[in-house]
Amino acid sequence: MSLAGQRLDPGRYAVIPRTLVFLTRPGEVLLQRVPPGRGAWAGLYNGLGGHIERGEDPLTSARREVREESGLIVEDLRLRGVVIVDAEALLGIGLYIFTGEGPPGKARAGPEGGLEWIKTSELLDRPLVEDLHVLLPRLLQADDSPPFAAVYTYAGDGRLAIHFAG
Q1: CA distance linking residue 152 with residue 5, whole number of Å
Q2: What is the C-alpha to C-alpha distance for residues 119 and 110, in angstroms, rounded to an integer?
Q3: The CATH number of 12-164 is which of 3.40.710.10, 3.90.79.10, 3.40.50.1100, 3.30.300.10?
Q4: Secondary structure class of 4 (helix, strand, coil)
Q5: Which of these, 10, 31, 94, 160, is most buried using a 10 Å CB contact count?
């Protein structure tokens, strides 16, 4: 099989694929607190997730990341959005965002950070990774709308701008 039809060009913009998952229970969402020493997000809350491994699809990756980071087994995840993070001139991040119902059982913390079920009414009072103030209200709406699409860009001073399609 030839890849010639794929028109691979190392000089074109490329993305690193990742997943981000938010598990919910009635009135709560599971978030992970990034441990000290983990860069700019240390001490902030984020969802579960990580890199998509070679040969792995986004859904399988999301399930694996939840299992690795929390010990929880989830089958029913729903793709809620796709974000391109415009990180550099030729490099970005392709982020597949999922939500799902938190399964029975206790989540266990791991090296990626501590886990906490946080009341949705208290979310915006917590120190969140910068995009979650916009994403979480959108993700926690109980609707059947199709997945959203967005691009994240950073200004010269490092401020994040979120651009939703449509």
Answers
A1: 29
A2: 21
A3: 3.90.79.10
A4: helix
A5: 31
pLDDT, tens digit only, all 166 positions of the chain: 566 677 777 788 899 999 999 999 999 999 999 988 777 778 999 999 999 999 999 999 999 999 999 999 999 999 999 999 998 888 899 999 999 999 888 899 888 889 999 999 999 899 999 999 999 999 998 778 899 999 999 988 889 999 999 8
If DSSP codes are grouped into helix, strand and coil, which group holds residue 29? strand
Look up residue 127 and give its two tokens. 């120190």
Residue 130: exposure state from Cβ atoms within 10 A (0-12, 13-18, ≥19): middle
